[in-house]
Amino acid sequence: MLSTMDKRNLSVVSEFMLLGLCQSWNKQVLLLLIFCMLYLIIVSGNIVIMILIITDPRLHSPMYFLLANLSFVDMWLSSVTTPKMITDFVRENKTISFGGCMCQILFVHFVGGGEMVLLVVMAYDRYVAICKPLHYSTIMNLPKCIGLVVTSWTIGFMHAMSQMAVIVQLPFCGPREIDSFFCDIPLVIKLACIDSYNLGILMNADSGVLAMTCFILLLISYTYILLTVHQSSKAGTSRALSTCTAHITVVVLFFGPCIFIYVWPLSITWVDKFLAVFYSVITPLLNPAIYTLRNKEIKNALKRFRGYYLHSKKNINA
Fold first, then answer.
1. Interval 216-253: pLDDT, tens
2. Would you list the DSSP string of the chain?
3. How far lies 188's CA from each of 171, 194, 265, in Å?
4. What is the distance between the alpha carbons of residues 158 and 164, in angstroms, rounded to a whole number?
5. How far apart are CA 175 and CA 192, in angstroms?
6. In the chain, what's the furthest Cα-to-Cα distance?
7. Mean pLDDT in runs of 10 for the chain (318 residues)?
8. Whole-angstrom distance, CA of residue 48 vs CA of residue 41
9. Cβ-based burial of 77 (10 A; exposed 0-12, middle 13-18, buried ≥19)
10. Residue 172 pairs with which residues in a beta bridge?
11. For residues 59 and 65, what is the distance between their CA atoms, to the nearest angstrom?
12. Measured between alpha carbons, how far is 262 from 269 in angstroms, rounded to an integer?
């Protein structure tokens, strides 16, 4: 064990160096343009969905209330890492302060953990709507929905704090290069001035348990849904698949990379970077497209909003 004086001498790292996605300047300029465009689409797309759900009375239902929360979470998750990555493309020294690094870890696991639970809540909503339609309005009332969303945030926060309680106490003294575009627990633990192998397994297990628990609950929910509608009619199966396909697609896109990072790590640098980009940028980008393209109510609300906007503009110009 390290003495108090030794720990004081070891904890001298005040900032970390992010190596980013690549070292080539030409590639960085190209990635700068690409990720700037993607981030603008993520923010604008998710904001449009939230505005539509808030302003359109026909979308004031539990499913769309949860969808608005998912859009907010996706936008926040992307905002934790993407702006820093974009600015680093034009910087020679891609540094991040110790405090900034800890904040990234905190919010990535807070928001990411909350999104996992929120996806389970959305699956539960679809389960009640399809398997218990007569009791839907009673079970999924507004107070219940708010309580479930608060629960998802609470679990995400508790998960993040359980990680931070360990990370902030680690001694850092030597290497400070993080071979990624943001601080994540497996990479930061490797830089600690202790034998971190067992600790890394423990911290990955913490995230893995949450991810796998949520993933299993999602599988159970959608299995019940498909079994229920299959017993009813073939037409019912088609309707249920149409309703749930968007949810299942989002679940696979989000949980796939998380499982490979925290449950079954591959320890291949470029693969880890790709998976990190996928769940922090690509998934928040695809969620609005998936729900908009496959949801008639959202598309109709978008048409009504556009028609109302054009009508108001004509009245102003008249």
1. 998 898 888 878 877 766 555 565 566 677 778 888 88
2. ---HHHHHHH----EEEE--S-S-HHHHHHHHHHHHHHHHHHHHHHHHHHHHHHH-GGG-SHHHHHHHHHHHHHHHHHHHHHHHHHHHTT-SS-EEEHHHHHHHHHHHHHHHHHHHHHHHHHHHHHHHHHH-GGGHHHHT-HHHHHHHHHHHHHHHHHHHHHHHHHHTTS-B-S--EESSSS--HHHHHTTBSS--HHHHHHHHHHHHHHHHHHHHHHHHHHHHHHHHHHHH-HHHHHHHHHHHHHHHHHHHHHHHHHIIIIIS----HHHHHHHHHIIIIIHHHHHHHHHHHH-HHHHHHHHHHHHHHHHHHHHHH-
3. 11, 12, 15
4. 10
5. 8
6. 79
7. 47 78 84 93 91 88 91 93 90 87 92 93 89 88 93 95 88 82 86 81 82 89 81 60 73 80 68 82 83 74 73 60
8. 10
9. buried
10. 192
11. 8
12. 14
For the record, the structure tokens of 318 come out as 């008249």
CB-CB neighbours of 9 under 10 Å: 13
